[in-house]
Structure formats: C-alpha cells, structure tokens
Amino acid sequence: MPTPGLIMLILGILLLIGAVLGFFHERRRLSNALFALIGAGLTLLGLLVVTDNGTGIQPWAVVGLAVLTIGPALGYPILTVFLLTNGAMMVRREQRTLGNLLSLVTGIALVVLPIVLIVMLGSGFRPNVWGTLSTAFAVFVLGLAMYMAFFFLVFLIAAFAYRKAPGDTTAHYVVVLGSGLIGRKVPPLLAARLDKGMEVANKQDPPAILIPSGGRGADEEISEAEGMAGYLEEHGIPPERILKEDRARNTRENLVFSRKLMPAPDTSIVVVTNNYHVFRAAMLTRDLGINATVVGAPTAGYYIPSAFLREFAAVFKEKFVLNSVMIGSYALLITALLVVSFGAH
Length: 345
Hints:
By secondary structure, the chain is of the alpha/beta class. Helices cover about 65% and strands about 5% of the residues. It has eleven helices and four strands. A four-stranded parallel beta sheet has the order 2-1-3-4. Helix 1 runs antiparallel to helix 2. It is globular and about 75 Å long.
C-alpha cells in the first residue's frame, strides 16, 4: 500500500506535469501557476517523507527548507523598503492618484501589519472576551494576508511565464490599447505601445493593419484613437493601414470594439500594451473568446511596481466569486472556533 509520502510525491509530480501541459495548451490561465506552486510544494513534502530513513534530514532538504523559511524572512523587510522607496519616487515623478501610490500604500501596509498582529496577539493573553476576540482577529488578518500573498505569487508567476514564453506574433491586425492623452499629445507610455505596435505590424507580410483603440476621456480634447492615429501617420504608417476604434473606455471594450472592426472571426490578432499589463489583457482575450497574442512595450522601471500592483488588484477583483468564497469560508471557520471557545467557557 502506498505510503502518505509517496502519495504526496506522486500527486505533486502529476500537478507539475498538468501545469506544464496546461501552459502549452493555454498560456492565459492563472490555474497553470496555481497547480505548479501546489505541485512543487507537495513534491518537496513527499520527497522529505520518502527519503526519511531515520538518520536525519538529507542535505538537499536542509537547503530547500532554508530557502522556504529564510527567503520570506529576509524578503519581507527587503520588499517593504523597496516598495516604500519606489512609492516615494512615484510621489515625486507622477500624479498622486491611488493607482500611482499603490507601491507606497502597500509598503506602509507591510510596516503596519506586524505591529497590528503583535498588539492583537499580545492582547490575546488576557483571559477575557477581549483577549479571545483579539486572538481571533489576529489569526484572521494573518490568514487573509497569507492568502493575498499566495494569490499575488500565483499572478506574478503566471504573468512572468506568459511574457517569457514565445508566442505566435503572426497577425493580420495589430490592436494597440489606448492609455490616455495629454490634451492632443501622445505621452511616452502610450508612445511606447505605438512604437511596439508598428514594429510588430511592419514585420508581417504583407504589413498588418493597425487598430489604435481608445475613446475620448473627460480631460482629453480628442479621442485616444485619433491621437494615436496621428502619431502613427507621423511615423510613416499610411492612413489605409490604420483603422480607428474610438469608443472604448476600458481594456475590455478596447478588445470587444476592435474585434468588431475585423471581417472574420478567425482573423489572427496581436494586442499591444505595456509590459506590466500584458497578462491581464491576455486573460481578457481568453474570457472574450478572442484568439490573440498579447505583447508588451517597455515601461520605465520605477513605474512598474505600482502599475503591476494595480493589475493584481484588478485581477483579484475580477475573481470576486472565488475570493469571496475562500475568504468567507475562512471567516466562517474563525467564527465557528470562536463560538466553540465561548461555549467551552
């Protein structure tokens, strides 16, 4: 009969194989990274149990456990300092919107979290109702933080893998997602997308049609599509190779309205955005049933942390049902333990 260690090892390997096969079949799934992480964890635990011969932990296991424990212990303060530093830079260089301040806000939250947990757990030593509630709250906050950190790690791995694995960039149409004008002017962030779009389109044989996509915002003099089309023409793209989509207000509408401008449902498409936005845009193409490859344009390094955190927040929100079930179930478990604890007294 298989031992528990062997079962864990086999299950972990199967999950890793499933993650790899799933990635090659469909790169736009978060579940690939989820299965890879769980599979790696089960494989490590299975190996620890299977190779335990009673003579102590094997050297490779010591190294693995050290990475798993020391890594987060050192990574937490390093990440906190990095986010605070990056947040200060964003305050100096960018508009002070919530999206641009996410790295600073997250850094502050990482500073506050241990303090809150220490205070709550310290109060938990009091043999009264407040002590019990404080402990329960601390356990809930810690569990919630760990869940969000795990979800972020899954998103980070999936996004990194999608960007690094080569995709098919053969296209009849290249859709460039809008990102806002300054009056009538194309700012550097959007210019990078347009430059990348021209690069991809001009490599096709014959050269692909470019679709600049974006409506007119409240603070914009013209639609993003019109401003983008002007930039493309200034850089040598003839008007007959430009098809403007000027109604979209967000990424989903960029994709839906641009798709409607194309004559056939099986038309090959490449979508161009900035590198931090690539995976979420790719996930949206999958949700919409659009067979497309998404490529990223370069972005200023200091801008990426806040922008990527904004992408994570958007994906976390899009998975509302899943996250509500997971967090709600955890809250119910904590509540049930509280009820049992109070009943025992």
